[in-house]
Amino acid sequence: MSNKDEKKIEIHNDSSAKDVEELMRKYDRESNTRIWEGKTGLAVRLIMVAFSVYCIFSTLWSVAALEKRLTIFMALIIIMGYLTYPASKQHVRVNHIPWYDFVLMIAGSGAFFFYCAQYDTLVKVLTSASKMTPLYTVIGIVGILCLMELCRRCVGWPILCVAGAILIYTFSTGIGLERLLYTLFYTTGGVLSTPVQVCAKYIVVFIIFGAFLERTGIAAFFINLANSLVGSYSGGPAKVAVISSALCGMVSGSSVGNTVTTGSVTIPMMKKTGYKPEFAGAVEAAASTGGQIMPPIMGAAAFLMAEYMNVTYGYVAVRAILPAVLYFAGIFIAVHLEAKKLGLKGISRSELPKFSKLLSRIYLLLPLVVLVALVTTGTRTMQFSASVAILVTIIVSLFDKENRISIKKILDALEAGGKGTITVAVACSMAGIIAGCITATGLASKLISGVVSISSQISFINPTLVALFLTMICCIILGMGVPTTANYCIMASTCAPILITIGVPKVAAHFFVFYFGIVADITPPVALAAYAGSAIAKSNPMKTGVNATKLAIGAFVVPYIFCLNPAMLFIDTTPLSVVMIVVSSLIGIFGVAASMNGYLYRKMHWICRIVICVAGLMMMDPTVITDIVGFVLFAAVVAIQYFGAKKQPLAA
Fold it and tell me: What values do phi and psi take at 599, rounded to 5?
């Protein structure tokens, strides 16, 4: 397909490239970066390129001790972090970094380089907290404090406040400074624990892969593909937003970033079609956030989940399929019903890209296919598979002269990969600190006891439901403003053990906490993705957040269903049962979406809305009795709506 054909749709975008950049700086802390130009900028770029190359080499071929590799990794993250993120927006000046940032950068990276250089000695000497010396104590304090300051700059206050509160609690239990520093800095039970290990081993290579993939023009391909498939139908642009954001979001790993980048195209299209600004912004925010739960990539969280649960990546990806389908089906149905209610039309087919011509660029999906095939079959390690996918990405780009990956683009991708790793690695280190403190204090068992105690005291409600609800609230609060991967690390350490203890299957528990950590990005009052969408749509932020929450109702309902009945995750079931579960769940999510929208063939009476909502929930529960009752109720409401609309075709 030619470049001319790809740009066939004339998009009247209200947001210029400068507007998009300003939005990213406002809602995405990762975009509040220093400005480097000229030779200084080149030097900074080369540092990030070198970091990406080192990470690929380290994860594939290095045989050095784990602690040595991780400390070098964290030292380089601190160097790049302070070169990239200023203390505040007011400190952004071209080619400028204040002296105190140099001090923090050298001190923080020096602490980890010291650990690496002295590792062989530390292994023999520092065998317990009682062996801590004043020098080791100072080194540990400096390293952790510099990390926390970098976290404030690039991730934000929410996760830092959680880490700070946990640290204060830890000291209040009587654990001394030396013992805590020994655990958090000098062992693999704190900063260098599982989150950072997975980040250094897997995630960084996948971030680099994503950077290469973006340079093939795959985002434009996804948008054009969505346009060719659904753009001509009623309310087409909103359906395009749902599909394209789901596809782009699974690779990007950022709800806010995806909302702003794809939303700058889709939101103006939706408004032009006739959708209200609050609804248009909400559709994009909800769909972009859902990209994080979209297999096969899931914002790189799928690989973390496999590591935490000690299962294969394929096991996680397969069980993520139905919940993700239900999530996006709910949004898709909602925008369709909204379009019917408002009488909206689609885009003329003559203005849309032809699907037959898009097929000529289907090769752009080959890197994803290769990645999934290699990882799922287990023939190669995940990091090796990602590296192969990077090479495949470069090769397939050679077939498109408009988006061919040149040497310059390779360097750009390596730079973007290094820069994109900073926030994830820092957030993972904070998650490690939180997990280390929880383990040292036994806080997890206390949280579990508290939730179980509260659940058992409310006798008129299923105790498991109460525990799930309390865990949901914790996940939404802890997930505010936290990147996807670190978000899951926190949830897996703090909330998942609660559910596992009360009898929820391990896989269902981890999916539950992951889902509710993610929806924090669209749940008021801290709904960064929704607020970013509202800024593009020029709508009321709170109303946009509320609309996004309603659209994402699947993310609030489905996790309860698969915790109460894990058959939805294809656990302990049969192929026939899987087919029945998929069909009944899709009908169920249709009922819930229709209830939220208040429209089917005509405006629904409030009683019908309640009935069809109950019917939908019953059909989403994978048991025969609930399916039968739910279907009867669902069919009754549909019949009432259909025949009522026949009698009053013009009813609002």
Answer: -145, 140
- pLDDT for 646 equals 77
In the predicted structure, residue 299 carries a pLDDT above the cut 80? no
Does the pLDDT at position 400 exceed 60?
yes
Which pLDDT does position 186 carry in this prediction? 95
Angstrom distances, CA of residue 310 to CA of 169, 194, 316, 505, 507: 30, 12, 10, 14, 10
Exposed / middle / buried, residue 533 (Cβ in 10 Å: 0-12, 13-18, 19+): buried
Give the number of C-alpha atoms closer than 13 A to the C-alpha of residue 100, restricted to the C-beta side: 6
Q: Which residues have C-beta within 8 Å of that of residue 615, sequence separation ≥ 6?
A: 588, 591, 629, 630, 631, 632, 633, 634, 637
> Of 188, 217, 191, 197, whose CA–CA distance to 383 is shortest?
197
Peptide bond into 525 cis (omega under 30): yes
- CA 587 to CA 630: how far, in whole Å? 10
The amino acid present at 620, given as its one-letter code, is M
SS3 assignment, position 599:
strand
What distance in Å separates the CA atoms of residue 58 and residue 419, rounded to the nearest whole number?
Answer: 17
Question: Tokens 């080791």 correspond to what residue?
Answer: 136
- Asked if 516 contacts 559 with a C-beta cutoff of 8 angstroms, the reply is yes
389, 368 Cβ separation under 8 angstroms: yes
Q: Are 451 and 494 in contact (CB under 8 A)?
A: no
What six digits make up the tokens of 449?
């006891």
Query: In 3D, which of 494, 485, 498, 492 has the Cα closest to residue 510?
Result: 492
Give the phi and the psi of residue 35 in degrees, each rounded to 5: -110, 115
pLDDT tops 50 at residue 635: yes
Q: Which of 42-56, 353-367, 487-501, 630-644 has the lowest mean pLDDT?
A: 487-501
Q: Which residues of 589-603 are buried (b: 16+ CB within 10 A; e: fewer)?
A: bbbbbbbbbebbbbb
Q: Decide: 589 and 610 in contact? Cβ < 8 Å.
A: no
Q: Which residues have C-beta within 8 Å of that of residue 333, sequence separation ≥ 6?
A: 589, 590, 593, 594
Most confident of 61-75, 79-93, 195-209, 271-285: 61-75
Res 10 pLDDT > 70 = no
Q: What is the amino acid identity at position 40?
A: T
Q: How far is CA 477 from CA 206, 285, 481, 520, in A?
A: 28, 18, 9, 7
List the Cα angle 28/32/37 in 5-degree steps: 140
Mean pLDDT of 165-191: 93
pLDDT reported for residue 256: 80
How confident is the model over 333-357, as a mean pLDDT? 85
Work out the burial of residue 172: count CB atoms within 10 Å of its CB; fewer than 13 is exposed, 13-18 middle, 19 or more buried. exposed
pTM equals: 0.83
Rounded Cα distance, 106 and 103, in Å: 5
What distances in angstroms separate CA 143 from CA 103, 114, 181, 247, one per listed residue? 12, 10, 10, 38
Residue 215 is given by DSSP the state: T
User: Strand pairing partners for 35?
Assistant: 94
Lowest mean pLDDT among 378-387, 414-423, 431-440, 629-638: 378-387
Of the listed ranges 6-20, 239-253, 302-316, 328-342, the least confidently predicted one is 6-20
Q: Which residue has the higher pLDDT, 23 or 334?
A: 334
| Helix pair 255-273, 17-27: axis angle to 10 deg | 130
pLDDT of residue 15: 42
Contact 565, 621 (CB under 8 A): yes
Residues whose CB is less than 8 angstroms from the CB of residue 604 and which lie 6 or more positions away in sequence, other chains included: 594, 595, 598, 612, 637, 641
